[in-house]
Design goal:
Number of helices of chain A: 10
Strand content of chain B: 25-35%
Strand order of the largest sheet of chain B: 18-17-19-20-27-26-25-22-23
CATH architecture of one domain in chain B: 3-Layer(aba) Sandwich
Helix content of chain B: 10-25%
Number of strands of chain B: 34
Strand content of chain A: 15-25%
Oligomer: heterodimer
Number of helices of chain B: 15
Shape of chain B: elongated
Number of domains of chain A: 2
CATH architecture of the largest domain in chain A: 3-Layer(aba) Sandwich
Shape of chain A: elongated
Structural class of chain B: alpha+beta
Structural class of chain A: alpha/beta
CATH superfamily of the largest domain in chain A: von Willebrand factor, type A domain
CATH topology of the largest domain in chain A: Rossmann fold
Largest sheet of chain B: 9 strands, mixed
């Protein structure tokens, strides 16, 4: 799903600027707060103040949340419940395969995904969601169980990961399916260099489990535009295979191949009900944040 | 064909580089890392076409450029043929220094030296210039900066060795001045010599600029068997009215074997004595002959050793001398007051003499005419100058050539009529104020010249208590006391000589008579006044003697007007009538006589070689080159110098390479090839691009 967003070209959303910030927590807070101020929305957008229902007071409930007017009428203690209190588990799946380590400019795809994940995690934590992390390549290499108190762990794990090994989808998704059981949101950040059918099938499983899934496809501008001109040997970052390529002859074909892959991926995801957002590492993060914001609003409006 | 730095030829292996580049250029590039190749169709390059060389011309140009570059670094040169004289940084100024000292007559040394000088001159190019300087005691610039080797060769044919010793230092100075006047860019000095150690004394002024290349061509082996006579001495003694002379000499053997030979003494070309002498190897023995009587002035003699022909040097086999009979000087001591003790030391001193001595008479009164006629010198020892006729006679005696010694005492005085006769006015007695000493003597004067050398007499040890003050009017002060007042004044009235001694010759006013210098001092004053100075029996060849000074020292040596000096080997040298300086350029007897006349006993001067030249020991040529200085050629020449005298005669590879400098042309060719390569490569690249893109070619393009 490509979402049209207003372009708030603030410097705090520029990946090249963010790349100079070492502290992911500071980075996420700066990005999210700045983003929210830019769109003039409440920072507690997800915490709706709409009344949902009353329930009887139970020992241990916060007495500040007792509806004293109803107590005056009924002489019974009732607790007011609001829609926003139905917070969800948010699991971030960050692809750390070697292909994510590519950068034609200053920011690698992994860095971009790291920034994005940190910002979304910070944003979700602000909505009182429980955030968790699955960093994976051919297996899960970092796992943080979803929890409202695990934002710091998520950020620390994000800071540790690196793009070194080959990637695969079967094993990591199987492990995520075993551990991410409560209905929630799965945010997948990857370049999705694999068969679209295979990937959509795997993520479709989570949709079938009732999870909301959003797929952020992160690509470098060079992967999309293929600006190379000189005949060069190209080396695959994951397979280490070397291919002699004459770009002036095959650039157009390459771009066509990439476009086709993205379109196929979007089509498969659409069928599975997975939101698909294509991100360019040269672009600011606001598009991704908007996409997530829309998704979160949708969840709030249509409680499960 | 050769290479100065052949190791650079290893770089020819680099010729494979362009070929490899042609064949493997695009397969060996650093790969570009890319996230995934799943979209890239694997397109193999046209390997078969890449591995086939398509542009042979381009490859050939690149290979040729690389090969020429390597060859340029190897610095090629050609030794022979027409190319051997090609190129070079410019014309060269060469100065040949040729040793013609008498040691070069040994064996075929001189022939070798001349041949080497001829080779150096013949090897020069037309644009080079050459100077020829021969040297022994002094340098002689024979040719100055000419470009005609034939003239050098012709001159070399006429040159012969001389009688003088080697002195390289002054010659180097001449070479330096000759090169300084040259405007040619390259300069070289070639020294051809036997490089005897005695011929070189380090001299800070005898150096050459750093840009001058110095080559040393050593002739000979550095040692040779030789017999040499040295230390010729004449011992005179009186025998009645005659004088007898004993001749002695020393015979030196520098050979490795003892030698027995005969040494002969000849006087006036007549042999009068022969001694058979055995000289040990590397040793020396004295030789003395029986005395002979000097019968006439300028008696000539020579001591000769018979050395086998073909061995050793001939110049040092003969020593010459000239001797004249002296006879006793008649000294008249005037003591009118009859104080005999006052003349004790004076008479005692004059009574002791070797060879020609003094006959003294003590006169109690004024000297008469007959007494003065038989006297050579009159001494007034603390006595007044006589007045009246006696004074006139004494004055006439001096003016006619007699000598007068006036030693002042308390009673010394000079009548006013004779005051102009004296070189100084006699003042009052100066006493008190402590003793004085002789503070200055004029060692250039004949009286004191014998005291010039170290430990030859110390006048300052004599204490003087009283003097008479002298105010010099027409004289020359040749000694002073330490307070600056005149001690001894010389006057020249007429033909005679007067010496005025400001204190006495006895012990009353000073203790000079107790000093060792007293006796020679009195002798020399008396001989000077009597015209009997010391005339050397021989001089070193190469020295310059003043005949007028010799004539002044010896009464018999009178230079006839218009006289010329006849050289021992023939020829004559005109004499300057004022200075009468004569340079004794060759060994033997030099006659001084008017041209065309043949007097029975002409004035003669003997000259002998410097036997130091007979020592053939070679100097350290490296040390010589380092002291002389010059450019890198000096050190290299030293390294090449060997006892086989082939030191630097062969031109070195550096010389050829430096003169030809082919590397410059090779680099120029490399530059042109690279320009061609650039143009050709651009054209080929453009043509290929046009062919691939299908772009329309400009009209007329091929």
């Amino acid at each position: 799903m490509a979402t049209a967003t207003p372009r708030a070209r603030a410097s705090f959303l520029d990946p090249t600027v963010l790349a100079r910030i070492d502290n992911l927590q500071l980075l996420a807070r700066t990005v999210v707060d700045g983003f929210l101020q830019g769109i003039h929305r409440s920072p507690y957008l997800g915490v709706s103040m709409d009344f949902a229902e009353h329930r009887p007071y139970m020992p241990g409930d916060d007495i500040r949340r007792i509806d004293w007017r109803l107590y005056a009428r009924t002489d019974r203690f009732y607790i007011k419940q609001f829609e926003a209190e139905t917070n969800a588990d948010v699991g971030f799946l960050l692809d750390t395969s070697a292909s994510m380590g590519y950068a034609s400019g200053e920011v690698t795809k992994l860095d971009y995904g790291r920034f994005l994940t940190a910002c979304l995690a910070w944003f979700s934590a602000g909505q009182k969601d429980r955030v968790g992390l699955y960093a994976f390549d051919s297996d899960v290499v970092e796992h943080v169980r979803p929890s409202a108190a695990h934002l710091d762990k998520v950020l620390h794990a994000l800071a540790r990961v690196g793009a070194e090994r080959r990637g695969a989808w079967d094993r990591p998704l199987a492990r995520v399916a075993n551990t991410f059981v409560r209905r929630g949101i799965l945010v997948v950040v990857s370049d999705f260099y694999d068969d679209p059918d295979e990937i959509s099938e795997g993520l479709g499983f989570f949709r079938a489990q009732g999870h909301d899934v959003v797929a952020f496809q992160v690509l470098d501008p060079a992967e999309i535009d293929f600006p190379f001109t000189q005949a060069t040997n190209f080396e695959d970052l994951e397979t280490r295979r070397i291919l002699p390529v004459k770009p002036e002859k095959y650039a157009a074909a390459y771009r066509e191949q990439v476009r086709g892959h993205i379109d196929r991926l979007g089509g498969r995801f659409g069928k599975q009900g997975v939101d698909h957002v294509l991100l360019n590492t040269a672009e600011p993060l606001d598009e991704a944040l908007y996409a997530y914001l829309v998704l979160r609003q949708k969840m709030v409006r249509s409680p499960r | 064909m050769g290479f100065l730095t052949p190791l650079f030829l290893i770089g020819l292996a680099g010729l494979a580089i362009p070929v490899l580049i042609h064949l493997t250029r695009q397969e060996k590039g650093k790969p570009l890392r890319f996230p995934s190749l799943m979209f890239l169709r694997r397109i193999p390059f046209e390997e078969t076409s890449k591995r086939r060389i398509r542009h042979w011309a381009l490859l050939a140009i690149r290979l040729a450029a690389l090969a020429l570059l390597v060859a340029a670094f190897a610095r090629p040169f050609v030794r022979g043929g027409a190319l051997a004289s090609v190129g070079g940084p410019g014309p060269e100024e060469v100065v040949i220094l040729l040793d013609r000292s008498y040691s070069m007559e040994l064996g075929d040394h001189w022939r070798q030296a001349v041949a080497r000088a001829g080779e150096v001159a013949a090897a020069l190019r037309p644009q080079d210039r050459v100077s020829l300087v021969t040297f022994s005691e002094t340098p002689h610039l024979v040719h100055r900066s000419i470009s005609d080797p034939a003239r050098i060769a012709a001159t070399l044919d006429t040159l012969r060795t001389g009688s003088l010793a080697t002195r390289i230092g002054p010659t180097v100075k001449v070479a330096r001045s000759t090169l300084a006047a040259s405007e040619l860019p390259r300069r070289r000095v070639v020294v051809i010599s036997d490089f005897q150690r005695a011929g070189w004394r380090p001299d800070p002024d005898a150096t050459l600029p750093a840009e001058v290349t110095v080559e040393a061509i050593a002739i000979g082996e550095g040692s040779a068997a030789n017999l040499a006579l040295s230390d010729l001495g004449l011992h005179r003694e009186s025998a009645g009215a005659r004088e007898r002379v004993t001749v002695s000499a020393r015979l030196v053997n520098t050979g490795a074997a003892a030698t027995t030979t005969e040494v002969t003494l000849a006087v006036d070309e007549t042999g009068i004595g022969t001694a058979s002498v055995t000289v040990p190897a590397g040793g020396a023995v004295p030789v003395a002959f029986a005395p002979f009587t000097l019968t006439h002035p300028f008696t000539r003699g020579e001591v000769r050793v018979a050395e086998p022909s073909g061995t050793g040097l001939s110049e040092d086999n003969t020593l010459h001398f000239v001797a004249s009979p002296g006879g006793d000087l008649q000294v008249l001591i005037v003591d009118p007051l009859g104080q005999g003790d006052s003349n004790l030391h004076l008479r005692g001193a004059l009574g002791i003499a070797e060879g020609a001595g003094f006959r003294t008479r003590l006169l109690r009164g004024a000297p008469g005419g007959s007494q003065l006629e038989s006297a050579d010198v009159v001494v007034l020892n603390a006595a007044p100058f006589p007045g009246g006729e006696a004074g006139d006679r004494l004055r006439g005696f001096v003016k006619d050539g007699g000598g007068l010694l006036v030693a002042l005492g308390r009673r010394s005085s000079v009548p006013s009529v004779h005051a102009d006769f004296f070189p100084a006015t006699i003042g009052p007695v100066s006493e008190g104020g402590g003793e004085r000493r002789i503070g200055f003597v004029d060692y250039d004067h004949a009286v004191f010249e014998a005291f010039l050398g170290p430990r030859s007499g110390d006048f300052s040890r004599a204490a003087v208590y009283r003097t008479r003050r002298l105010d010099v009017t027409d004289g020359r002060v040749i000694a002073r006391f330490d307070d600056g007042s005149p001690a001894l004044v010389e006057g020249r009235p007429g033909k005679g000589r007067v010496l005025v001694w400001a204190t006495g010759l006895d012990r009353f006013w000073n203790d000079l008579p107790l000093q060792p210098v007293y006796l020679p001092f009195v002798h020399r004053m008396t001989r000077f006044l009597g015209g009997r100075g010391e005339v050397p029996a021989w001089h070193l060849a190469g020295t310059t003697v003043s005949l007028s000074a010799l004539a002044e020292a010896g009464a018999d040596l009178a230079i006839p007007p218009g006289a010329v000096a006849m050289e021992p080997g023939g020829g004559s040298v005109a004499l300057d009538p004022e200075t009468s300086l004569l340079r004794l350029d060759s060994r033997g007897i030099w006659e001084i006589r008017p041209p065309g006349e043949r007097p029975e006993h002409p004035v003669a001067v003997a000259a002998n070689v410097d036997v130091a030249e007979s020592d053939m020991t070679r100097m350290d040529i490296e040390e010589f080159l380092a002291a002389v200085g010059g450019g890198p050629g000096a050190a290299e020449a030293a390294g090449d110098t060997t006892p086989t005298n082939t030191s630097t005669a062969e031109p070195r590879a550096e010389d050829f390479e430096g003169r030809q400098s082919f590397w410059r042309y090779l680099l120029a060719a490399v530059f042109l090839l690279m320009v061609s390569e650039t143009v050709l490569a651009n054209r080929l690249s453009r043509r290929r691009t046009d062919g691939e893109t299908g772009a329309p070619r400009p009209p007329g393009s091929s």
